Structure formats: structure tokens, C-alpha cells
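lol so apparently i was supposed to do this last week
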Amino acid sequence: MKKIIALMLSFSLLSSVAIAEEEAASVKEARNALKFRQSLFQLIRSNMGDLGAMAKGVKPFDAAVMEKNGMRLEQLSLMIADYLATDTREHKLETDALDKIWEEPDNFNEKIQALTTAAQRLQAVAKAGDESQFRSAIGGVGKSCKGCHDVFKAE
Ligand code: ASC
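anyway here it is w/ ascorbic acid bound
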């Protein structure tokens, strides 16, 4: 009985994390979903800009910016599943989003989690102020971007 309760609990926890996919009911709805999700990724990109410049040595490391952007990236990562929940595969859109996003939700959620984790590490490293870790922490975030793009984004 305890096992059954534990099982039920774990299912209910899982379902609270996984986002239910829903097909866009019209092209208008699909276009709106596209606009919103692209806006989200633009915000993610804008928070990567300075970090990338720091990792490349174009800008000096700034722990306060790393912590702030890391926090923003963590928060933005938590929005990805919601903003990609609308399945727009049936509509003709100008998009780099591959159908796989809606075909492999578990895999997609893993990629999202990788960004969340990397953004959390970036904040921790920035707070600790150990500059020897700065580049690898930023690199970890960049890797999580690429890891998802390689599978789910047309390029
Ligand atoms: C960025 C950006 C991406 C990722 C990726 C990392 O700054 O705009 O898409 O990092 O280039 O490999």
C-alpha cells in the first residue's frame, strides 16, 4: 500500500512538472505562440551577450552581472516548457523550431533542465567569487544552449 501511495505521489509530482502539449487551434494561435516563444529566446540571448563577451575575454569578468544574468537565465529557463507547449507543427510558420520538440518532450525537458542547472551553477560561482571558475561556469550555460540547438533547432 505504501508503495502504491509513493507511486501515485511520484506520478502527481511528475505531472505537475511536465507541460501538457496542446495543438494550436488556428494559424492565428500558432503565430502568437511563435511570437511569444521567440521573445523568450531573445531575452535568453540578451542575457548571454555579456556573459559570452566575458568568457571570450572581450569584457572583464563582472561577478555581479554574472549573478544577475544567471538568475534571469534560471527564471527564463523555467518558462521554456510553458512557451513551447503549444504544438505548432500543423501550421506553416517561419521557424527554426524542429518538430522533435513535440515528438520528444522528455528529451526536450532534459535540455531545459540542463540550462536551469547551468544557470544555477553560474550564480553559485559568481557568489563564491572564485574567478578560476568563471569561464567554465559561463561555458556550461553556453553548452546547454548548444546541446538543445543541436537537436531541436534548425540551423
Ligand atoms: C549564445 C547564443 C547561443 C549560444 C550558443 C552556445 O550566446 O546566442 O545560441 O550562446 O552559441 O554555443
